[in-house]
Amino acid sequence: MTEYERWLRAELDDPDLTRELRSIRNRPDEINDRFYRNLAFGTGGLRGVIGAGTNRMNVYTVRKATQGLANYLKARGKDPSVAIAYDSRIKSDLFAKQAAAVLAANGVRVHIYPWLSPTPTLSWAVRYLKCDAGICVTASHNPAKYNGYKVYGPDGCQITLKMADDVLAEIDKLDIFRDVKRTDFEEAVRSGKVSTIKDEVIDRFLDEVMKQRVFTKPCAGLKVVYTPLNGTGRVCVTRILKMIGVGEVTVVPEQEFPDGNFPTCPFPNPEIREALQKGLELCEKVRPDLLLATDPDCDRCGIAVRQNGEYRLMTGNEVGVLLLDFIARARKEQGTLPEKPVAVTTIVSTDMATPVAEHYGIELRRVLTGFKYIGDQITELEQQGGADRYVFGFEESYGYLSGGYVRDKDAVDAGMLICQMAHYYREKGMTLVDAMEALYKQYGFYENELLNFGFEGEDGMIRMSGIMDALRKNPPAEIAGAKVAGWSDYQASSRRDGEKTSEISLPKSNVLEFRLANGGKVIVRPSGTEPKIKVYLSAKGADKKESLTEIGKLHKAVPALLGIEK
Predict the structure, then answer these.
(1) How far is CA 74 from the centre of its chain?
(2) Boundary of a domain, candidates 197, 220, 242
(3) What is the 8-class DSSP label of residue 456?
(4) What is the pTM of this model?
């Protein structure tokens, strides 16, 4: 209440915040939700609901975080520089310019994109312009009420845990009103303290994406419907599809141009069927081979494929396995698969990637959830002189990358590769669904499902913590009638199989994994970007029916496992 009253008395320069604060004067629950904590800052930067308060995304929380970043950079080197990009979300341009104004006032050189830009182009700019850090204002695929502030290191990866802790230590020293330096953004541009990133930077980015194409033959005859979901992908994706010779691209008109309200898809996430509904409706008229969708910051890519007159949505795991197989298969055919090739995926992504990688002699590395960990593997290979060994990386959450030119998932690259893959199989008389079915028959019927359980507000945070604590203290002996043969606690960095306990080499993370005697698996983790617990289910059966049956059993068992009602 003390902090609320302080904000209410302050002369805030965003009138939206003052109106909101006055509107909740007699609503203690609303006040508490906005002020019970500071918006968390970590390896993913900031992410939260747009609004007034210390637990909201607004110009004051953004400025404070940026002041902390400026202090961190200036303490570690002379003349630091930062690249900034932003997406189509509400207030993204304002937050980006305010971050630039704070950096400029602190003597940090700023390079800012003058238009909405995909997240991978920020990773590219940090590396191309040799910056010390990067900021991307985006909440990725979250609902419209969210915005976020991702911070990148000089390697183009999202920041490490160590850097996040060090920046947070600087942020925690600051008073949100008194201790932040800033100048006028337009004046900083005129004085040269802030410079706009030139078109040439994007041109070079697309040149690097083109270098990742698997073959040079144009994708003539391929018909694609594309939706950027009112985000940043339209320009880069349509350009790259034209560059690889896709025969016909139709953009979904209702979702073509930037709109942070996302009027036709309240959850602008290509994982969700509702987000693709307008695209699917257009497909019924255009009858393309493929529906391609990118999320608002254009780092995730989803697809639907025409099969027997209908359009089937393919999961992130399916597309990841398809791309891994396609890249390895095509490069092997062409003799361009490197010696000792490496692919990288995450602990929550499908186990099917393992036999596919083994088939091609590819070393498959599994890392924690978050594409920065895949980026770390690329950096490690580069430092060892083996950058060309990296052939592909993917997350089950629709993130893919086939080269080391950036260190984050890239839907521009993914869209290009998916179209090349669709064309490759089209010439063989197959769809991507046919290709996936062939892989199931070859490697086994792996089935995966993701469940989300939301927990809003302060009470929600407490409940999530309680669920994880209870699972650690009393791990289940069985799940859905299947014995738990082993389990891993990534926060304690320990793995237990029977009576044997071993260390996990990955960094500590709040993740629990339960391995079942029948080959199934259940992984539980709180989301790092939303107030929810995610539960990943995995099963393998003798055929698709059996694997779906096993997944169904696990699905029904999860609420009891978490100790919550259905």
Answers:
(1) 29
(2) 197
(3) -
(4) 0.94
65 and 170 inside one domain: yes
CA distances from 219 to 63, 214, 388 (A): 46, 12, 26
| Residue pair 369/348 in contact by the 8 Å Cβ criterion | yes
Q: Count of residues for the chain?
A: 566
406 and 290 both lie in a single domain: yes
| 277 Cβ contact list (under 8 Å, min separation 6) | 264, 265
- The whole-angstrom separation of Cα 185 and Cα 174 is 22
pLDDT at site 566: 54
Active-site residue flag, 140: yes
Residues 388 and 505 placed together within one structural domain of the fold: no
**Among 81, 88, 117, 140, the one annotated catalytic:** 140
Domain span including residue 335: 206-443
CATH number at residue 401: 3.40.120.10
Mean pLDDT calculated for residue range 128-145: 96
pLDDT, position 390: 98
| Number of domains observed in the structure of the chain | 3
Looking only at the bridges linking them, the beta strands covering 109-112 and 146-152 are unpaired
Tokens 């970007």, residue located: 529
Kindly report, residue by residue over 402-432, the tens digit of the pLDDT. Answer: 999 999 999 999 999 999 999 999 999 999 9
